[in-house]
Write a structure and sequence with these properties.
The complex is a heterodimer of chains A (about 300) and B (about 450). Chain A is α/β, with parallel strands linked by helices and about 300 residues long. Helix content of chain A is about 50%, strand content about 15%. In chain A, helix 5 packs parallel to helix 6. Chain B folds into three domains: about 80 residues, SRP54, nucleotide-binding domain (Four Helix Bundle (Hemerythrin (Met), subunit A), Up-down Bundle), CATH 1.20.120; about 200 residues, Rossmann fold (3-Layer(aba) Sandwich), CATH 3.40.50; about 140 residues, Signal recognition particle, SRP54 subunit, M-domain (434 Repressor (Amino-terminal Domain)). Classes of the chains: A alpha/beta (about 300), B alpha/beta (about 450). Chains A and B meet through helix 2, helix 6, helix 8 and helix 9 of A and helix 2, helix 6, helix 9 and helix 17 of B.
C-alpha cells in the first residue's frame, strides 16, 4: 500500500466522522452515553450474540441513533430493528418437491434432532400431507426406540434397522418405503456427531451420497438443529456442518427456556442460512415457524 | 488462539519493559484483550468482568520480571487465577454409607444418561457395585437407552417401564438394591429446564426421599451465557454437590466451566471426553484454564510423554541414532511407544492450535496406517529386522502375505524406514558437529547461529 493510499484512507476516516458529526448537529440528535452503550452491550452479550456481532450492532446503532433526531427513540428499539432486518429472509417454509421431499436432520449430540424430526412429521401431517420417518441414528442407545415411540404416538410410519446398522442402508430403505407409500415427506433422523470428528462427518457425507443416488436431488432440505443454550461454539458447528453437507436451514431448539439463541445472528451474518423453525417444548406441536420480529423482541426480554 | 492472545498482549506490553512495575494504565489495554478472549470462550460477561477486576488488582504494582516477557507474565497470572478458581480441594465423590446415592440432574440433551453409564463404569472399576436407576419418566425411550448402556457395561439397571411416579421408582429401586447387594445407586433423572417449577419440585421431592450423597449437575461444555442461570437455579433448588462437564471432545472453549464454578462454588468433578463409555475423566482445572484461554494443554502432554517414555530407552535410542544403527526393531519400538501415549487425535488436540489442525485430518485413518505398519514389521524375521538390506523381492512377497497386505504396502514401509534411517544418520552427524561447535561457542563462538 502506497503512502498516498494510506493518507487517503486516513482522511476518509476523518471525513466519515465529520459527516457523522455534522448530521448529528443538524438533526439535533443526542450523543449516546457510555452507560447506555454498556447496557446495550451487556444485553447483547448476555443473549449469546458474541463479541464480534455485538460490536457490529453497537456501531450500527450508534450511527442510527446519533443521526435521526431527538425524538427519543430508544437504543434498544434500534438494536432490535437491526437484528430483525439481519434475520429476515423469505425462505422459512419447508421446501416442497413434486413427489417425495427428503429432509435430513443433522447436528451435534443432544440438540434435539429426534424430537425435531417427530415434530416436523407432525407438522406436515397436520397440514394434510403424509410423512415417513427414517431412524438413521443407529449409534446412540435406544435412539431408534425413541423415534418409534414418537411414530406410534403420531401414527407416522418409522423405517428402522438394528442398533449399529449402516445408517446409509436404512436411509436407502426409508426412501424405498416412502416412495411405495406415496408419502410427500421423508424426515431422516441422523445420529448426533461433534463437528470436529472428521470420520463422523464423512459418514454423514456418505449418507447423503447414498440418499442422492437413490433419489436424485435428495436430500432436498438439510436442517441443522442447534441448541439455544449453546454459546459461541454454535458458529463453529454451523460452519463445519455447512462445509461437510451444504445446509439449507437452521432449527433452533429449547427456546422455551431463558436462553435466547443469539448465536444465530452471527451464523446468519456469516453463512446466510435461514432459520426455519424454533422448538419451544417437548410436545409434538411445540415447533413453530421462525419469526424474525418475535425473535428480536425476545432477545431483549427478561 | 493462545498465539494471537499472547501476541496481542506482547504488543500491548512492548513499552512496559524498563518501567519496573505494572501500572493500571499499561495493563488495561491488555486486559481488554483478555476480556474479549474470555467472552469468546463463553464465560458469562459478569463473571468475566469480576475476574478481570481480580486479576487487575493482583497484577498492579507487581514488578515486571526482567527474565520473562511481560505479556507472558500477565498470561501466567491470569492462567494461575483461572486454575485457582476452577480447582477444588474436594473433587472426589463422597460415597459414604451403606447405600450411597448419586443424582444426575440437568437440562435436556446435556448428557445425563450417557454420563450415568460412564460414572457407573468408573465406580465398578473402583470395586463398588453400582445400580443404574432409570428415573427419566418423560423422554420417550430414555429408559431403553439406560438399559442398553447397562447391558453394554454389564451393570444392572432398575427399570419400571410405564411408571410415571419417580418416587415410586426410587422406593422400589432401594428394595432392589438391598436384595441384590448393590452399594451405589445412580439416578438418571429427566432433563428439564431450570425454570420449569413443577419439574424442579419433582426433583426436590426425589432428593428428599433418597437423600443423595451427591447431586451432580450435568452441563454441556458448549453452553453459552445461560450457564450462569442454569447453575444458579439448580443449585438454589437442590443444593448440588458438584458438576460434570460433557462433550469436551468438541472444540467448544468451555468458558461455561468458569461461570458454573464461580456462581455455585461447587467443584467440577468429571469431564466427558467422547462418545465411548470409557471417555470419562476426573476434571483437570489446569487443562480447562488453558483451554478457556486457548493455550492448548502442553503441560498434560509433557507429563504424559514423560510417563510413557522410558528414559533409558530414550538414551539408547539416541546413541543408536547417532551411530546410524537404527533398525526396524527400533522403528517398531517407536511405533509402540507412540501408541502408549493414547489416541493420536487426543494427543494432537492437546497442542496449542492442535484442535484446529485436527479438523482437516482423519486421525482414525492415520492410526490404522500405524497399525498396519506394525503388522508388516511383525511379519519379518528377526534377521530381516536387524538387517533390512537382505529383504529382497521374494521376502517382500512373503512379508506381504504374512501381514495380509499388498507388496506395495511393504515397499512403502521399507521406503519410509530407509528415509528415516538416512535422516537419523544426518542428524547424528550434525549432533557431532554441534558438539564441536558447542565447545567453540564456549570459547566465544557464535551462539544463536542455529536459530531460524
Amino acid at each position: 500500500m502506497g503512502l498516498f493510499q494510506k493518507f487517503k484512507e486516513g482522511l476518509q476516516k476523518t471525513h466519515n466522522k465529520l459527516v457523522h458529526e455534522i448530521k448529528r448537529v443538524v438533526t439535533g440528535s443526542p450523543k449516546l452515553t457510555g452507560a447506555t452503550l454498556e447496557e446495550l452491550e451487556a444485553a447483547l452479550i448476555a443473549a449469546d450474540l458474541g463479541m464480534a456481532t455485538t460490536s457490529q450492532i453497537i456501531s450500527a446503532v450508534k450511527k442510527a441513533y446519533e443521526t435521526q433526531g431527538s425524538t427519543g427513540v430508544d437504543v434498544f428499539g434500534i438494536a432490535k430493528r437491526e437484528i430483525e432486518i439481519s434475520l429476515s429472509n423469505t425462505a422459512t417454509a419447508l421446501r416442497r418437491e413434486p413427489g417425495l421431499t427428503v429432509v435430513s436432520i443433522v447436528g451435534v449430540n443432544g440438540t434435539g434432532k429426534t424430537t425435531t424430526a417427530a415434530k416436523l412429521a407432525h407438522s406436515v401431517q397436520s397440514q394434510g400431507q403424509t410423512a415417513v420417518l427414517g431412524a438413521c441414528d443407529t449409534f446412540r442407545a435406544a435412539a431408534v426406540e425413541q423415534l418409534k415411540l414418537w411414530g406410534d404416538r403420531l401414527k407416522v410410519p418409522v423405517i428402522a434397522g438394528a442398533h449399529g446398522a449402516d445408517p446409509a442402508a436404512i436411509a436407502h430403505d426409508a426412501i424405498t418405503a416412502a416412495l411405495a407409500r406415496n408419502a410427500q415427506y421423508l424426515f431422516i433422523d441422523t445420529a448426533g456427531r461433534l463437528h470436529t470428528k472428521q470420520n463422523l462427518m464423512q459418514e454423514l457425507q456418505k449418507l447423503h451420497r447414498v440418499i442422492g443416488k437413490k433419489l436424485p436431488g435428495a436430500p432436498h432440505e438439510v436442517l441443522l438443529v442447534l441448541d439455544a443454550t449453546t454459546g459461541m461454539n454454535a458458529l463453529n458447528q454451523a460452519r463445519e456442518f455447512h462445509k461437510a453437507v451444504p445446509l439449507s436451514g437452521l432449527v433452533v431448539t429449547k427456546l422455551d427456556g431463558t436462553s435466547k439463541g443469539g448465536m444465530v445472528v452471527a451464523i446468519q451474518k456469516e453463512l446466510g442460512l435461514p432459520i426455519k423453525f424454533i422448538g419451544l417444548g417437548e410436545k409434538a406441536d411445540d415447533l413453530q415457524p421462525f419469526d424474525a420480529k418475535q425473535f428480536a423482541e425476545a432477545l431483549f426480554a427478561d | 488462539m493462545f498465539d494471537s492472545l499472547s501476541q496481542k498482549l506482547q504488543n500491548a506490553f512492548r513499552n512496559l519493559r524498563g518501567l519496573g512495575k505494572i501500572s493500571e494504565e499499561n495493563v488495561s489495554e491488555s486486559l481488554r484483550e483478555v476480556r474479549l478472549a474470555l467472552l469468546d470462550a463463553d464465560v458469562n460477561f459478569k463473571v468475566a468482568r469480576d475476574f478481570i477486576e481480580r486479576v487487575k488488582a493482583k497484577a498492579i504494582g507487581e514488578e515486571v520480571l526482567q527474565s520473562v516477557q511481560p505479556g507472558q507474565q500477565i498470561v501466567k497470572a491470569i492462567h494461575d487465577e483461572l486454575v485457582d478458581l476452577l480447582g477444588s480441594e474436594n473433587a472426589a465423590l463422597n460415597l459414604s454409607g451403606n447405600q450411597a446415592c448419586i443424582m444426575m440432574v440437568g437440562l435436556h440433551g446435556s448428557g445425563k444418561t450417557t454420563s450415568s453409564g460412564k460414572l457407573a463404569r468408573l465406580l465398578q472399576k473402583q470395586a463398588r457395585t453400582p445400580l443404574l436407576v432409570a428415573a427419566d419418566v418423560y423422554r420417550p425411550a430414555a429408559m431403553d437407552q439406560l438399559e442398553t448402556l447397562g447391558k453394554q457395561l454389564d451393570i444392572p439397571v432398575f427399570v419400571m417401564k410405564g411408571e410415571t411416579d419417580v418416587l415410586k421408582i426410587a422406593r422400589n429401586a432401594f428394595d432392589y438394591a438391598k436384595q441384590h447387594h448393590r452399594s451405589t445407586l445412580i439416578f438418571d433423572t429427566a432433563g428439564r429446564l431450570q425454570i420449569d417449577e413443577p419439574l424442579v419440585q419433582e426433583l426436590v421431592r426425589l432428593r428428599d426421599l433418597i437423600k443423595p450423597q451427591e447431586i451432580l449437575l450435568v452441563l454441556d461444555a458448549a453452553t453459552g451465557q445461560e450457564a450462569v442461570n442454569v447453575a444458579t437455579h439448580f443449585d438454589k433448588a437442590l443444593n448440588i454437590t458438584g458438576s460434570i462437564l460433557t462433550k469436551l471432545d468438541g472444540d467448544a472453549r468451555g468458558g461455561a466451566a468458569l461461570s458454573l464454578k464461580s456462581v455455585t462454588g461447587k467443584p467440577i468433578k468429571f469431564a466427558g471426553m467422547g462418545e465411548k463409555l470409557e471417555d470419562f475423566e476426573p476434571f483437570h482445572p489446569e487443562r480447562m484454564a488453558s483451554r478457556i484461554l486457548g493455550m492448548g494443554d502442553v503441560v498434560s502432554l509433557v507429563e504424559k510423554a514423560a510417563e510413557t517414555f522410558d528414559e533409558n530407552e530414550a538414551k539408547r535410542m539416541e546413541e543408536k541414532m547417532r551411530k546410524g544403527e537404527f533398525t526396524l526393531d527400533d522403528f517398531l519400538n517407536n511405533l509402540r511407544q507412540m501408541k502408549k501415549l493414547g489416541s493420536m487425535d487426543k494427543l494432537i488436540g492437546m497442542l496449542p492450535g492442535g484442535s484446529e489442525a485436527l479438523k482437516g485430518m482423519d486421525m482414525d485413518k492415520e492410526e490404522k496406517r500405524f497399525r498396519r505398519m506394525e503388522g508388516i514389521i511383525c511379519a519379518m524375521t528377526q534377521r530381516e529386522r536387524l538387517h533390512p538390506a537382505i529383504i529382497n523381492a521374494s521376502r517382500r512377497k512373503r512379508i506381504a502375505k504374512g501381514s495380509g497386505v499388498q507388496v506395495s504396502d511393504v515397499n512403502v514401509v521399507m521406503n519410509q524406514f530407509s528415509q528415516m534411517q538416512q535422516m537419523m544418520k544426518k542428524m547424528g552427524r550434525m549432533q557431532k558437529m554441534m558438539g564441536k561447535m558447542g565447545g567453540m561457542a564456549g570459547m566465544g563462538g557464535m551462539p544463536g547461529m542455529f536459530r531460524k
